[in-house]
Amino acid sequence: MQPSSRIRAILGGGASGWEVVHRARKMQRQGVRIIDLTVGQHEDPTPAPILEAMHASAMGGNTRYSDVAGSSELRAAIAERAAARTGAPAGPENVVVTAGGQAALLHAFMATLDAGDAAVMIDPYYVTYPGTIRATGGVPRITPARAEAGFQPDLDALEAACAGARVLLVNSPNNPAGAIYSDETLDGVAEICRRHDLWLISDEVYDGMAWDQPHRSPRALPGMAERTVVIGSLSKSHGMTGSRIGWTLAPEEISALIATYALNATYGIPGFIQDAGLWALREGEAIEADLAGTFHRRRDIAMRALAGRQAVRLSPPQGAMYVMVDVRATGLSGRDFAERLLEEAHIAVMPGESFGASAAGHLRIALTVADADLATALTRIADLAETLAAERAAAG
């Protein structure tokens, strides 16, 4: 007997992108102190008021099966939030609550792709994007956004990639690069979607972490609400990564399909977690602002720490909770540099290659440790890069 080839095909024959993370955690289990800058997870637990709301709901009996699409109150609160932030009307009928943003992505692709359909995605991309597309039977089609262009996608290349495709996936504010797509980019994306009759999946889980310009959702652009599925989550905005609560915001007919898939995939999200999410959306504005302010401050710490360094170059992030550092002057790939950094300095970062070819020779650094540890880690990264660059120069 042979197992299904479906899951084996998810990686597409490549590495998972998580190898440095697994090695760092093995070292931690062996007692080595690692400054872990890999995963986008807050260093502190979920804020106490959210946990208190979760506890009260569970103790109050909300532990039975929930509505598969999410409680009517939570869906209404998500719709209100989306309408306020995007400027486009939304109602609870447009919302399905999912087990985090990752499940929302899978649900969205399941509702918009058939087997063999192409889904266009922009490189660099979040690690799971290609595998999520393959999990639906779709085919990832990748187009670049170069560091030299501030990680804004090349619209001509994007247009060419979209010919014959069915879905376009965008992510702004962007993980890993921290880029926020310009008005020109978003207008171009919308025009391409309309011209090629594409579904647009817009991953906006970092919509509350925009530093240098406001977040702008393509859903609000002319003719886009009826073809856009927005991905949202409370993981980053309210420190609820382990609670696994996200959502899709989509045209009503797509939401109905997503709810059908959710019925057969997860059969709903625990009611007490939904109640905690509802509290977070209604009462947690100060929590969201505080968490966002932390990452904005750490972005500035990173920019100061790496200013004037010759062997590293920071692509100034406009949002999200990461910085991308160019280490190509060392002559090493991002993966090789990350391995040496872990071995020699006990600092764990994600190699740029985990996020696609456009991020090769870079490191993605999550701003998820205390300020002092972050500053120490950045200094060690820059020192190692300068040592390696000097060795390269001396070798001719």
Describe the structure in your own words.
Pfam families: Aminotran_1_2. Its cofactor is pyridoxal 5'-phosphate. Residues 34-381 form the Aminotransferase class I/classII large domain. It is an enzyme of class 2 (transferase). The chain is of the alpha/beta class and 396 residues long. The chain has 2 domains: 19-45 and 286-387, Aspartate Aminotransferase, domain 1; 48-283, Aspartate Aminotransferase, domain 2 (3-Layer(aba) Sandwich). The protein has helices at residues 19-29, 48-59, 72-86, 100-112, 129-135, 155-162, 183-196, 252-265, 271-283, 285-306, 334-345, 371-394, and strands spanning 35-37, 95-98, 118-123, 139-144, 167-171, 199-203, 228-233, 246-249, 313-315, 322-326, 347-351, 362-366. Strand 9 (313-315) and strand 10 (322-326) form a beta hairpin. The longest helix is centred in the C-terminal third of the chain and has 24 residues, at 371-394. It is globular, with a radius of gyration of 21 Å.
Give the helix proportion (percent range): 40-55%
Annotation, overall tally of beta strands? 12
CATH class of the largest domain: Alpha Beta
N- to C-terminal distance: 56 Å
**Silhouette:** globular
Which fold name is given in CATH as the topology of the largest domain?
Answer: Aspartate Aminotransferase, domain 2
Secondary-structure-derived class: alpha/beta
Strand order of the largest sheet: 2-8-7-6-5-3-4
Q: Which range does the strand content fall in?
A: 5-15%
**Uncertain runs with pLDDT below 50, 5 residues or more?**
none
